[in-house]
Structures are given as structure tokens and as C-alpha cells.
């Protein structure tokens, strides 16, 4: 029972922090202004890890390499802790561990896409004039706009978030299966 609780807590903490790091990188890609509340909260939560890395890894064009590397470091630490909780020696699994860490970061990114899409869809129905809507629209537009071009609106209803949700869920299944086949625990 203790192991299950520890895995749950580690998964929750690391997934939230990993998603914040990925969101920080994504904010730079979509050029979201840093003075809005979402950007400000993400920057404050991740500055302690990203800013020291930025001295070594500067941003190029629109890619925040410090945030990307911080995400990978976080994923590696998470995978090592999960391996330790299973009772295995992480040093014997180093090559596998690195691949699983990359898969974990990809899973965090897919989770982030799902949650942003769900939040945007809910707010568009409940409170379309919410101050968060322009931010969510800007963050999800690169994923939803290609789907909107392919999928027509049915009676004024935008079904692209549902299609994106299905696509991302399938990708998550593939990533999770790959990680499980490499290890004996679920990321």
C-alpha cells in the first residue's frame, strides 16, 4: 500500500511540474506575453530550475532549450525514483531509463494538450468571455486549426477538440505501451 501511495504522489507531483516546464517552452513557441497570469504562474513555478540552465542553454529562435532540458532532467529523476520504488537498481537500467524518460516527457506533453483542450472546450460552453479563453485559444490553436480545416462544423458546433482528444488518447496509449514494454512499471 505504501508503494502505491508513493507512486501516486510521485506521479502527480512530477506530472504537474513536467507539464509546467513543457507549458513554459510552449508559451515561448506561441509567443504568449509573459505578463498574463498563466505565464506569470508558470514562470514563477519553474524559474528555480530553468534560469540556471539558461546560462548554459540559451534559447534559439522560438525554442526554449533550457525548459526542454529541464523537462528531460525532471523525467529522468522521476523514472529513477519509480525504479527505486520497485526495488530495482537504476544503474543497471541506464539505457532503458533514458528512453523511458523521453517517453515520460512525451506523455506529459500529451497530457498537457488534453487538459488545455478540455479546459478550452468547457470554458467555451460555460463562459466564452472568460479572460483565460484568448490564452487557451492561442495555446491550442496550432493543434486545433489543422483539424478545423479537415473537420466541418456541424450545426455551429466545433468538433475539432473531440477529434484532438481522440488522437492524443491514441498517442498516449502507444507511448504508455512502449514504456511498459521497456520496464515493469507504468509511467
Automatic annotation (TrEMBL):
Family membership: Belongs to the YggT family.
GO cellular component annotations of the record: membrane
Keywords in alphabetical order: Membrane, Transmembrane, Transmembrane helix
A Pfam match: CCB3_YggT
Membrane-spanning parts: 6-27, 63-85, 97-123, 162-186
Protein name (Swiss-Prot/TrEMBL): YggT family protein
Superkingdom classification of source: Bacteria
Amino acid at each position: 500500500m505504501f508503494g502505491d501511495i508513493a507512486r501516486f504522489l510521485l506521479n502527480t507531483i512530477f506530472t504537474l511540474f513536467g507539464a509546467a516546464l513543457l507549458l513554459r517552452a510552449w508559451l515561448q513557441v506561441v509567443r504568449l506575453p509573459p505578463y498574463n497570469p498563466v505565464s506569470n504562474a508558470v514562470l514563477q513555478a519553474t524559474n528555480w530550475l530553468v534560469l540556471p540552465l539558461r546560462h548554459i542553454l540559451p534559447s534559439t529562435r522560438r525554442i526554449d532549450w533550457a525548459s526542454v532540458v529541464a523537462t528531460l532532467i525532471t523525467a529522468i529523476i522521476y523514472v529513477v525514483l519509480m525504479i527505486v520504488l520497485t526495488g530495482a537498481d537504476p544503474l543497471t537500467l541506464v539505457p532503458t531509463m533514458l528512453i523511458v524518460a523521453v517517453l515520460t516527457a512525451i506523455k506529459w506533453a500529451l497530457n498537457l494538450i488534453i487538459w488545455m483542450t478540455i479546459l478550452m472546450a468547457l470554458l467555451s460552453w460555460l463562459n466564452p468571455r472568460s479572460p483565460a479563453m484568448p490564452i487557451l485559444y492561442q495555446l491550442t490553436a496550432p493543434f486545433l486549426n489543422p483539424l478545423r480545416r479537415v473537420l466541418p462544423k456541424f450545426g455551429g458546433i466545433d468538433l475539432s477538440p473531440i477529434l484532438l482528444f481522440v488522437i492524443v488518447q491514441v498517442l498516449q496509449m502507444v507511448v504508455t505501451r512502449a514504456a511498459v514494454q521497456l520496464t515493469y512499471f507504468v509511467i
